């Protein structure tokens, strides 16, 4: 999907403990900058980075307030984080500026079905502070931020298969409780300007 090449610079928004960042740096020889709001998770990532000596760096930062020079990154990646961001259009405009010409963005996140949510789901979303939209709305927000070649797709089926395999391993016991009205999607886009 991302066609990572040695020497590229990747921004991971919501990096957590950096698992994906270490993987990308080691497997594809890219430099990864991971940002996250959690001091604890970022601390674990920094500890691991010292031991592994690969091209990763981590910072506690709020992605909607952080700034980078235009054209800093070849790839921006975010997994299961954007649902916490209220101003997605503003964030996507920042992503567009931070990408180099021809850069790519890959976001995987939860979404809700089009139309009003059930009372139960609406309460859950409100209680958690999520800002969920349908897959098409996510794709449109990226297009509105000037991204081209946007692919926004529902990956719920793939996600359920993964959760079911975890269930077989005893890792989780609830599979797809909200799958009838929420889902898991991904957006891939390229700045072709």
UniProtKB/TrEMBL annotation:
One of its GO terms (biological process) is methylation. InterPro entries: Methyltranfer_dom, SAM-dependent_MTases_sf. It is an enzyme of class 2 (transferase). It catalyses: N,N-dimethylethanolamine phosphate + S-adenosyl-L-methionine = phosphocholine + S-adenosyl-L-homocysteine + H(+); N-methylethanolamine phosphate + S-adenosyl-L-methionine = N,N-dimethylethanolamine phosphate + S-adenosyl-L-homocysteine + H(+). Pathway: Phospholipid metabolism; phosphatidylcholine biosynthesis; Lipid metabolism. Keywords: Methyltransferase, Transferase. Its EC number is 2.1.1.103. Residues 6-122 form the Methyltransferase domain. One of its GO terms (molecular function) is phosphoethanolamine N-methyltransferase activity. This is phosphoethanolamine N-methyltransferase. It comes from Anisodus tanguticus. The lineage of its organism: Eukaryota, Viridiplantae, Streptophyta, Embryophyta, Tracheophyta.
């Amino acid at each position: 999907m991302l066609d990572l090449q040695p020497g590229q610079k990747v921004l991971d928004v919501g990096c957590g403990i950096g698992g994906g960042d270490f993987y990308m740096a080691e497997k594809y020889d890219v430099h990864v900058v991971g940002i996250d709001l959690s001091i604890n998770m970022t601390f674990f990532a920094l500890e691991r980075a010292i031991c592994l000596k690969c091209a990763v760096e981590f910072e506690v930062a709020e992605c909607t307030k952080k700034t980078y020079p235009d054209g800093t990154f070849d790839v921006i990646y975010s997994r299961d984080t954007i649902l916490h961001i209220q101003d997605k259009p503003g964030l996507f405009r920042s992503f567009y500026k931070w990408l180099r010409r021809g850069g790519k963005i890959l976001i995987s996140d939860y979404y809700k079905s089009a139309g009003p949510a059930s009372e139960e789901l609406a309460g859950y979303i409100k209680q958690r502070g999520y800002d969920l939209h349908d897959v098409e709305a996510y794709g449109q927000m990226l297009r509105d931020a000037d991204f081209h070649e946007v692919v926004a797709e529902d990956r719920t089926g793939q996600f359920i298969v993964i959760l079911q395999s975890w269930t077989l391993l005893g890792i989780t016991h609830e599979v797809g409780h909200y799958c009838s009205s929420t889902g898991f999607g991904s957006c891939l886009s390229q700045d072709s300007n």
